Amino acid sequence: MLNISELSEKSIKQILTILEEDGKLSASLPGGGLIHIEDNLPYLIVYRKRENDEGTERIILSEASYLLIGDKFFEAYQNLIYALADKLSTEFKSYMVFEIYTGEPNNCFTIKAPAEKLPTSIKALQRELNKINEIFSGLYLKAEIKDTPKRQKEGDQEILSIDKAKKSGAVVVGLEIPPVFRNENNQVYPVFLRQFKDYLITCIHKAIYDYVRVQTTSGVGSYLALGRKHLKEKVFEIDKALAKIERSYQFLWLVSPANIQDIKNTFFESKYEKVLDYHYRLLPIDPDLLKRELYNLKIEDIDDPAMSHIFREKREELDQQITMLSERGTSNFFYNSIRLYKGLSPKLSEEAGAILREVDEAEEDENTEFIDAKGFSSLARREFDYFAEQDENFKSKVHIRKDVNIMMVNNGELYIPADYKMNKTEATALIQHEVGTHVLTHYNGTQQPLELLSSGLADYDPLQEGLAVMSEYLVDGLTANRLRTLAGRVIAGSALMEGAEFPQLFRLLKMDYGFSAHRAFNITSRIMQGGGFLKDIIYLKGLVQLRDHLQNGGEYEPLLAGKFGLKHTKIIEELTERKVLKTSALRPSYLLTENMTNKLSLIREGLPLSKMITQ
Asked: Secretion signal: which residues (predicted)?
């Protein structure tokens, strides 16, 4: 960051020169002031440092274009504002200086502006601010417009006079905020301030975007693009720290039993009566120390609303996972599993029931050609070659292991059980499930500036598995037995929540829903691990959510840019608009087929899940 110790005529010219040459600037200014401008935006958010005004300064610090006026040399700051307005209004045809300040305790936002000159922008700000009572209960706030030449706080000097604003081609707007985020002793309510700030910034951006669109020649595409494009170093430090904590343990590996084969053999030999205790691998981490490390991260210092939200969500998820590792084999593990995977909705249970009523289990054809682990490995490497054609930096490995009992992707690499066998239809589907989705989104995430997009934002699993299962459908590989298994996992999860134990669950699936003994065991043993583990419900949950997303007009391909949830699509869109994130580096091979377009159209038109199976 540039350090400017005095705002002389020379230093103001230096600021303008840097902006002209680089298009951006970040500098400390006299009296504790700061300036940050990206891409020569046609507006400037301004706040003056004040005594006994706790919290207000934080509102502007995440902005892409802001000026924090220090407590010295006010006249020099006025000269700087005029110089910026004069230069940038020439470039953009107009320039907005938007001052924020806190008023006396009341229930009103006051917008001070030339309302007749900016009717739609000012009305947009009033309209958005008036929605605040729908978001926060008990505030009872309103927004009013005051058409006055005095845009500053009563008793303050103008930051830019109306005459100078007209001369420079600028417009000045003032927003007086009620100090609802602190008490009468000037103490801030930290959680509410963060939520209030995030809401207020969105309101301001929507109004400024209307101004930018109507009054200027700026090419900003939407209000989402008005956030910072260059994140502070603290953001990347916390991103790396969270990703490192997650990499320090393999959650799914540690909650799966090490003696699953013994459990299966004993259960079948006892005619489905005896269930051995689950034995788990030793923890490679100390949960207490890891939690201390997790909560030593100063996420509260992150001013960017989108990044703050992402980090707080991820910290809570990691906290829950670490707690669950120390509770394996107890009822508390199950209760935390409900929290982690958000439980079961009646809609999801109805979808599962409909599938099992309408789709019968299919018997294996004796003449079916099977592919072993080595054959599948060759198919995977062929897909890897396709990815490398798109990006020469792509690299991944296939591991065939005797100590792995399910196929999985870990850290972007494929692990296959040594004794794995599947028919050709299943192999085609699994390639796109594991490689075309999990490997691909991991790699796309590694190409983003945020490490968490390769390991996964909080609650990313449902969308990941929804995309993976959808890819099976798109390549004509979603079989009746596969779809039934996904539905059976939901039925098992529902029964588990009602208190069913291992033998009861097994019999429910085998006797009531017609699953083969081996499929019923696989579903039951997976959902009983740890003491009750609801992760398996997310496959059908994710498919249902993805179907709803597509039927509501949502796009498909942007969901492959990394590992995130459908709830993050607005944030991902915003960060992409702000050019913080990039578009996907890799595309799966199935996206290039005409069949894919037709199949997605059927989904958008309301194709039932039970009709998605390969005939």
From this structure: none
Q: Are 531 and 331 in contact (CB under 8 A)?
A: yes
Question: What does DSSP say about strands 413-417 and 398-401: parallel, antiparallel, or unpaired?
Answer: parallel
Residues linked to residue 410 through DSSP beta bridges, in sequence order: 413
pLDDT, one tens digit per residue, over 336-348 is 999 999 999 999 9
Token pair of 159 as six digits: 């930051």
pLDDT greater than 70 at residue 581: yes
- CA-based nearest residue to 485, from 511, 521, 528: 521
Report residue 224's pLDDT band, with 50, 70 and 90 as the boundaries: confident
pLDDT, tens digit, for every residue of 461-472?
Answer: 999 999 999 999
User: Token pair for residue 314?
Assistant: 């991820």
Q: Round to whole Å and give the CA distance between 300 and 238.
A: 11
Whether residues 418 and 509 fall in one domain: yes
Say yes or no: 212 and 112 in one domain.
yes
Q: What is the DSSP letter of 101?
A: E
Cβ atoms of residues 210 and 124 within 8 Å: yes
Shared domain check, 453 and 530: yes
Task: Give tens-digit pLDDT for 310-330.
Answer: 999 999 999 999 999 999 999
pLDDT for 305 equals 87
| d(C-alpha 68, C-alpha 57), whole Å | 8
Where is pLDDT greater, at 421 or 470? 470
Who's near 419: CB < 8 A, 6+ residues apart? 373, 402
Instruction: Round to whole Å and give the CA distance between 106 and 139.
Output: 10
Question: How many CA atoms, within 13 angstroms, populate the side-chain half-sphere of residue 333?
Answer: 21
Q: What is the pLDDT, as a whole number, of residue 266? A: 96
515 shares a domain with 436 = yes
Query: Could you give the 3-state DSSP secondary structure of residue 239?
Result: helix
Strand partners, 109: 143
- Residue of 482, 462, 484 whose CA lies nearest to 473: 482
Mean of the per-residue pLDDT values of the chain: 93
pTM attached to this predicted model: 0.86
Q: Which residue has the tokens 């199935």?
A: 590
Look-up of token digits 């970040």: 26
φ/ψ (deg, to 5) at 415: -115, 125
* DSSP-assigned beta bridge partners for residue 63: 227
Gap between the Cα atoms of 491 and 508, Å rounded: 9
